[in-house]
Design goal:
By secondary structure, this protein is α+β, with helices and mostly antiparallel strands. Strands 15-19-18-17-16-20-21 form a seven-stranded mixed β-sheet. Helix 10 (about 295-320) crosses helix 14 and helix 13 packs parallel to helix 23.
Amino acid sequence: MSYSLTPFYLKNDLFQLDFPTDRQSYGGKGRSLIELAERHVSIPNSVLFRLDEIQQRLKRDIPGYLCGPGDEILRWQMPCEWESTLSEIQKFLNGPLIVRSSMSCEDLPHTSLSGCFESIVIPNPTLEQIWNAFVRVLASGLGVQSNSRLLDSGVSLRSFQVGCLIQKWIAPKLAGVCLSRNPRNLWQKSGSIDWGRNGESVVQGKELLGTLNEGEPLDTESDLHPFVDSLWQLARDLDRVTGGPVDIEWVWDGCKLWIVQYRPVATEEAELIRNTQPGNTWSRELTQERFPEAVTPLGWSALEDVFSTAVKSLDRDFGIVVNHAQEIAICYEGFVYSNPELFRFPEGIRIRWSHLLSPWKRSFWGVFRVVLGSLPKWFQLNKSQSIALLQVKFIDALLGHLAEREIQGWNNHQADHLRQLEEFNQKLEKINEFSPRSLLEAMEELRTISCRFMEPDISIFLMKDTIFRSLRRLWVELGNSEMDFLDCIDFRSGNRTIELCEEWKGVHALLNADPNYSLFMNHLETGTWVEAISSARLLPQSDRALRDFLSKYGHIRTQWDLAEPSLGESSEQLLQLLRGSSINPALKGGVSLCSMKKSGEGVGLDLEFELIHRMLRRLEGLMRIDEEQHFLAGAFLVPSRKLIHRAEEILIEKRVLENPGAIYFLHLAEIKAQLADPDGSLERLAARRRTSWERNKHKQRSTLIPEENSPKASPQGQVGGVGVSAGVGKGPIYFLERFEDAGEIPRGAILVTTAPNPSFVPLYSSLSGMVSVTGGPLSHGFLAAREYGLPAVSGVKNAYQVFEKGAWVEIDGSTGSIEFCRGGP
């Protein structure tokens, strides 16, 4: 093995063309200098070193250098064969120089490394001084301060590589940092410049002479005048190239502007910006129902795994171009946001139309028939009706066969995966004997089963939403009521949520009649439901009914997060279910499409009744699959939690973790890596993430990112929304976000929530109405509200600002109006 040092020389030369392709091999600062040189930006002459060459020599000369705080490196003697190389560098730079860090990791999303790594200026360099500065900078990469911050951010010291570069020293008249965006709001493309006499001090926020925000007038006497426009332009160019905010370190020597280095800002918000397409907005509108609360890092990394699988079906079925899961959804400060544009098929998203409209595809000939067959009907309807009808026909031609495929194949798809899950659960009976290796194999097996089960999830949602929007538009254009259209949709058949509520009626009635019910509730407050049943000695009939119910529905949970226990695991959730529900009202009857046609309601339906009827049945089929898939998803999370608990036991044994529960604040990849090859403690990393998660989950959350795109709340007293479940309800306001907090809800209350969580359905019997900030007509909670006749209003953006707990209001679920009741009831 060769232990030579082969530096790469970067010259301030417009004609240098021989740039290395493996830029990361030269460390963070080295990579940025190569990119700047490629753009012909004025940089000081620099010498870069390959990280792997430095590590190889260190391992040979100081085998245990990674185990100490860097002190061993300080005693490292210059290798004889490197002396000539350093001599060449001395001649190349020919004067004062600076030795800077260029480690494999220079920036971290949650922890600043500023001040950890040394930079050493040598005014009159000798070979000995250059070598001493070289080893001091390398040693600073393994210092106590840098090690602590790296461990806090989960960076493995095994993978961390120390490195440095040597650069010509430019004596500054002014030096500073230029940020390409507003430091207080990185979404705003208006940068700022901080400057002083010493660049290193400015980077650390010290010895500032001034700050200039982009767009502000510059004093006529300012020293920035000669170069400020060039600096702003470079910042904008680099921002565009990297797709997000950058900071640039610069020096002005009185004659020329030099760029010392640049780096993409490494915060979580900056990373989100880089994953956002220009002009796009991240929204909570679609995700609040499924993910109403903050998701743990483990919960999100597991969900991301599922999204990555679902991405494939979007391209395969619809030709929708999605390069990675982060284009569908992201997790920011613990909360899940989605890209709403992706679900407005076919508007606003990138589609390979050749995929759908190839002559070899059924959809091509379907669209061809639509065009020919629509010409005669075009003159029978007005323009808006004709366009709405044409849209329904196009959606039928493009998506009809795909929807039929999913509907007809669903029962087999569901049965196959539930059978595989049952076989997997049998293996978990010996989970306490699982070694790290067998645990990893089990985790991969369950991942494969669950990802395949959830693979059609996003495709089904997209088809369901697209068909619904096109049918609703046609229905309304033909002069019919939107609420009547919602009543035509049969949501009840095969709906698991409603089946649960109907079965709970019988269980709850038996428990209420049981003489030992109060004793059972007392035991449930201090123990598990199994212990409570045994201790309270319930009557055999109610005992059996409750056990059967929890055996069938014990996997139900309020959200998809591995940290959240299911109904069968949590006594608290069962307590709230018992306290917050009563005998549910009877399901109400709907208006059938056929009866509306025969009675003359829905003028104009006779024109395309068969088409509308076919599309409506497809919509109902997709809705059933969507609801059933989410209902059953909890069944896959139950064994997942068992695997995670076993993984936590192993990691605590190996001293990777210390406290139970810490594992939920690691990513799935980190857990698997530590099971395969333990590499130091991650307890501090988990603790820091937990602190951040706890802080962020109580923040007032914007519906949209960037926040300036969020709709402004109406003034105090002006409130209303969109009716999503007909009827009039009157009662006191009660805010609810978590099912576990439902115990104190007063009977007859108007429930105000962020999103219509399906787990609230068992509470509907005790409510007079529901108001939600978000949620569409097909949200599971609103579908159930219509089936039970609970008035509901959605889209009340300022609900948490204008309502007060206990204030009486009257809502109209048909019109969306909300009125305050003076003086209470």
